[in-house]
Amino acid sequence: QVDPTKLVDAQEVVGGKFEGYRRSGAKGVCATAEFVGSQQGRVLSTASAFSGKPVPVIVRFSVGGGNPMAPDNTRGQRNLALQFDLPKGEVWQMGNISAPVFGAATPEQFLGRLESLQPDPETKKANPEKVKAFADANPEVLLQGKYFASQPVPASYGAVNYWGVHTFGFVDAKGKKQFGKWIFEPVGGLENLTDDEAKAKGAQFLFDELRQRVAAGTVAFDFNLQLAEPGDELDSAVKPLPDARKKVNLGRLTIKSVAPDATGACLTIMYNPLVLPKGVEAGRDPMLAARAAPYAVSLGRRLTEGAKQ
Ligand code: HEM
What we know:
Layout: H1 4-15, E1 27-37, H2 39-44, E2 55-63, E3 78-85, E4 91-97, H3 107-116, H4 128-137, H5 143-150, E5 153-154, E6 162-163, E7 168-171, E8 177-186, E9 192-193, H6 195-201, H7 206-216, E10 220-227, E11 247-258, E12 280-282, H8 286-289, H9 292-305
Helix pairs in contact: 1-3, 1-9
The protein binds protoporphyrin IX containing FE (HEM).
Protoporphyrin IX containing FE is lined by residues 7-8, 22-25, 28, 60, 62, 79, 81, 95-97, 102, 107, 110, 165, 237, 270-271, 287, 290-291, 294-295, 298-299, 302.
């Protein structure tokens, strides 16, 4: 086990320390949504989320990283965090990212990567030799950056794909478990900006763009599950399932409202991906198990400082 305090300390050193803000996904906005599960969801899992009755969801959209002033008009990570408020007080939380892979395979490797990126006390910049030596020995840490570099700047929080990255097990009424990796795909399709368009948009446009888009029409995502087959790697957040794997639709998430400012029910939630409903189980990915404790450390710090976003 990696000390969660060390992980959050390292994130603060690399990403900057901003009191009151999440130590990752710092720049965000609350929204509300409704989820309606599909017949296919009910076949795969007994989870009440898939009953077919509308379920309220507390949503948070954010830009990756610890900087609450992070620019919206550069390539990189966007996040979709969800809390499904299910019948009988049951809750399902998840934090999805706009890449099919995370930036490390294990918490030890993630800490090593963060340590290699720490600024040198003299130059105030990361030491390129140290960064290269760690990445050469741990090539998995470059996969996510390569993916983001290959993708244009998203035009909207509502027009980009968000992956769960980890494997989860979906358990049916007979106890049969189907493993899979999920992806939230915008119903209206993907929309991107050219580099010139992104430049012209400036650093702050995603919150207002989403507010306008939701007010003017429908912003919705299909909750799709890629089904694992025997022999597939199930324990890695840096290895997507093969493209050829069958994808089924578990239901649709429709965004209902976006907070007009920095308030909202998402502010004090830590979206802990181990908070799962009956009928959905965590896979054995060490990266998934490692998330709960540092999130709690970050929540503790930001609540004590006065939660902001
Ligand atoms: C050990 C590895 C990781 C560490 C140390 C870490 C750290 C953090 C921290 C400190 C937060 C803010 C928590 C809060 O204050 O509420 C956060 C948020 C988030 N993380 Fe991670 N994380 C890790 C792995 C991952 C992975 C594998 C994913 C891939 C899906 C991920 C996706 C997210 C998302 C989407 C959020 C934003 C959630 C929100 O809007 O509140 N993280 N992470």
